């Protein structure tokens, strides 16, 4: 059985990204494109020059710090000065000035340790739902009945560098609100405890669904919906808030699904404010952070962070969505180990179908959508950030792909049912004879 949302579930992102009707689906049809495959192939050689293959565990829950780039982040003095110029007063906030944010953000609750102990039954293992680089995650019910996820920082992590990271997460979470971003309810900062309380998203991570851990196969229509939700969330972070935010850790284990298979992007621990284009900044200098396999090679080389690093990670995520494979698959033979590299090569050679997740049907609609999604991935994975589309454009393209996919699926379904009706009536008439 496949999980599928109702086709009538036309989703928009209220007040944020409204796909214009002009997203001509023909923009992506094979005939109309100015041979992007050849064009992209020219620059392809450089795409993965910065890739590396550290070991990645099969189980996202067991990922430890050692597997990821979680060194503390520093902004160069020049960048820091630049980032503070002309920005809001909640820049560079220290713990001591934190109450200022509280005053400005009336919706944020500052929890007490007693409340947290009470709702998590003293961090009972039976309430624990996950473990990540930040620490343990617990499911809890607040006194007002709201079901939440309580993220408790590991002490060892906090001792090293979490102070900055925690503040980063609080600042970011408090400023954003979008249907496709995990909602922030409150936090606790007391002694060496650092806790964030966020919306509980009940249906597991995207990675778990691609692994079929929940039993059902996520069909391509649902995967396209997820991609669009994520694109909307990131577009919002990049373009529709006062001080744009670069997520920096877009990956399938940071995408949580609701019961209706709507996607919510989580984990803003690494989020960084985007360069301030008003003051002429083109990038923020920072030590590399993110997760192996999703990292923008240009960022890795130069430490210069822009929104396009998120676009690169999104390109990796798109490949993950259509292939079902993790970005790095250490168990596969060398040429298939870096999934995006392998898939792009096959796509350029005209053999896209060979990378389709074997769990998905090779229907005409799926095959066409696969090619178009890989074409978009190729653009997102361009070695130079200038050649990558922005997230808004990605959302528009995906919207058009979904429209074509729905239409083709419906027409195939219609012709199939007509054929089966015809064969039934032939059988009936044969029966009469
Ligand atoms: N808001 C939430 N609602 C429901 N489950 C959650 C929520 N946040 C996290 N989880 C669960 O807890 C697990 C660990 O989450 P966490 O964000 O700490 O780590 P991660 O995303 O797996 O890795 P990383 O630390 O690299 O981000 C997730 O995989 C998910 O299963
Ligand atoms: Mg996470």
UniProtKB/TrEMBL annotation:
Domain Protein kinase: residue ranges: 123-408
Signal peptide coordinates: none
ATP-binding listed as a keyword: yes
Entry keyword set: ATP-binding, Kinase, Nucleotide-binding, Serine/threonine-protein kinase, Transferase
Keyword Disulfide bond annotated: no
The enzyme's E.C. designation: 2.7.11.1
Top class in the EC scheme: transferase
Binding site residues for ATP: 155
Residue ranges, compositional bias (Basic and acidic residues): 1-12
Region: Disordered, residue numbers: 1-36, 55-90
Gene3D superfamilies assigned: Phosphorylase Kinase, domain 1, Transferase(Phosphotransferase) domain 1
GO terms for MF: ATP binding; protein serine/threonine kinase activity
Comp. bias intervals (Polar residues): 23-35
Domain of life (superkingdom): Eukaryota
PROSITE patterns in alphabetical order: PROTEIN_KINASE_ATP, PROTEIN_KINASE_DOM, PROTEIN_KINASE_ST
Family statement: Belongs to the protein kinase superfamily.
Protein name: non-specific serine/threonine protein kinase
Record organism: Clitoria ternatea (Butterfly pea)
